[in-house]
Design brief:
This protein is an alpha+beta fold and about 425 residues long. It folds into three domains: about 15-125, no CATH class; about 130-190; about 205-425, Beta Barrel (Thrombin, subunit H). The protein has helices at about 50-60, 95-105, 130-135, 145-150, 175-185, 240-245, 415-420, and strands at about 20, 25-30, 45, 65-70, 75-80, 115-125, 150-160, 165-170, 185-190, 205-210, 210-215, 220, 225-230, 235-240, 250-255, 265-270, 295, 305-310, 315, 320, 330-335, 340-355, 365-375, 390, 395-405, 410-415, 425. The radius of gyration is 29 Å and the shape is elongated.
């Protein structure tokens, strides 16, 4: 799952037959004067609570209603009423009128200055039950079923047009003719790819912390967390600096292989042990260069990054930055190992040898300013491909970025040191 969200001008509500609004005929507004029973509500608006009650009402009476649709731009809800005989809204049963009127009486008032919803009514040929009957036949009723067998991707109700909306991989003349022959004008075809399961290995934009990332030369690491530095106001993706040293000058993609459809960006500012810091200088001493932090920059003003982090239970936004103390319980969260919450910080401000001289075994290269984590139960905390992943705690606080490890221990750059190096901070939910 996904708890992300995308901005849109209209709110799609499919539950209980509520979908996007479209212009229809036979529109009646509750604000208009009426001497007959067409005035289903004694008000021209619904609160958010009333909207929820109406959705439940329509779901419970599928033969009387034809669903509902909303238009966010005008903050209007259209209640579609079944009227197969085209008798008009005046013929709606007293039972139905009473049920809707009860909502108006019981709805809770609008809170937090929320704008009430203007109510309109439309009479439709098909009820929700009619549309559900058509929907249930989509995979089996001929000749459409055979024509669409290898292309069918989805099908569902669209009350705004009083039809069943059918998604196909490709709309062909054969499929169009079969749809017409089988259902007349009661279905709408739309090109829709078949769903791909999304996870940290095979994700789609916006890309999240914990995603597998791969460079053009097939070096793989893990995305850390969306980050805004003090010198660049556009979000970037935090990861380990040595990933850029291993894939110097390469472009980065989400997944296990370079894929132009999943392009994330290129190396921005970075620093890594005994490497280059954005081409500015070469590091030869512990004090000069032992840090291991980097940023993927997309170059767009609207980069494909999101503030959430993958865990073993889906994904959610980080809630805060976490303080790092010896004894603090933390979780690794690499794209290879997954989330492991058995870690306990065992030392801070640690220097770790990660390159030795072959002749005598003396350490040539250190990773510095890191905290060491040891598993409390001996389980594996990290492995190859996990570099750059977020280190978190159970409450989804972000503690830092993983730099490496071996078996039951790992080390990470604390988030407070990341902020010291590049300013700014992670994007939090």
């Amino acid at each position: 799952m996904r708890l992300g969200s995308k901005s849109t001008s209209r709110l799609a509500i499919l539950l209980a037959g509520v979908a996007l609004s479209a212009t229809s005929l036979n529109v009646y507004s509750a604000s208009a004067q009426s001497s007959g029973p067409t005035n289903l509500l004694a008000t021209d608006s619904l609160t958010d609570d009333g909207m929820a009650q109406v959705a439940q009402l329509m779901s419970s009476q599928p033969t009387d209603f034809a669903g509902g649709s909303v238009d966010e731009a005008t903050h209007t809800i259209t209640i579609h009423v079944a009227d197969a005989g085209h008798a008009g809204l005046a013929m709606v049963s007293p039972r139905l009128r009473g049920a809707v009127a009860a909502v108006q009486k019981s709805q809770k008032p609008t809170t937090h200055n929320a704008q009430p919803w203007t109510v309109k009514y439309v009479s439709e040929k098909h009820s929700t039950a009619d549309l559900q009957q058509i929907e249930s036949q989509i995979p089996t009723r001929e000749p459409f079923a055979t024509a669409v067998k290898s292309s069918l991707s989805s099908f569902g109700l669209d009350p705004s047009v009083n039809k069943v909306r059918v998604g196909v991989i490709s709309i062909t003349p054969e499929i169009q003719a079969a749809a017409k022959a089988t259902y007349g004008n009661d279905v709408v075809l739309e090109q829709t790819p078949r769903m791909e399961k999304q996870d940290r290995i095979n994700d789609s934009a916006p890309y999240l912390g914990g995603d597998r990332i791969t460079a053009d030369n097939y070096v793989s690491c893990t995305a850390g967390i969306e980050y805004i530095s003090s010198s660049y106001s556009v979000p970037q993706m935090l990861t380990a600096g040595h990933c850029f040293w291993d894939a110097y000058g390469e472009k980065w993609y989400q997944g296990t292989a370079p894929n132009s459809n999943k392009y994330m960006g290129f190396e921005g500012w970075w620093v890594a042990p005994n490497a280059l810091s954005h081409g500015a200088y070469t590091c030869f001493t512990i004090a000069q260069c032992g840090d291991d932090v980097g940023l993927i920059t997309n170059g767009s003003s609207n980069p494909p990054f999101g503030p959430q982090i993958w865990t073993n239970y889906g994904f959610a936004s980080a809630t805060a930055t976490g303080a790092n103390y010896v004894g603090k319980a933390v979780c690794s969260d690499g794209s290879v190992t997954g989330e492991n919450c058995s870690g306990v910080i065992s030392s801070v401000n640690t220097y770790l040898c990660d390159k030795t001289r072959n002749s005598d075994g003396a350490c040539l290269e250190y990773t510095t300013h890191v905290d060491k984590v040891t598993s409390s139960n001996g389980s594996k905390m990290s492995q190859g491909g996990d570099s750059g992943s977020p280190v978190i705690s159970g409450s989804l606080q972000i503690h830092g970025i993983l730099d490496g490890g071996a078996g039951s221990w790992m080390y990470f750059t604390p988030i407070e040191y990341v902020q010291y190096l590049i300013g700014g901070g992670p994007v939090l939910g």
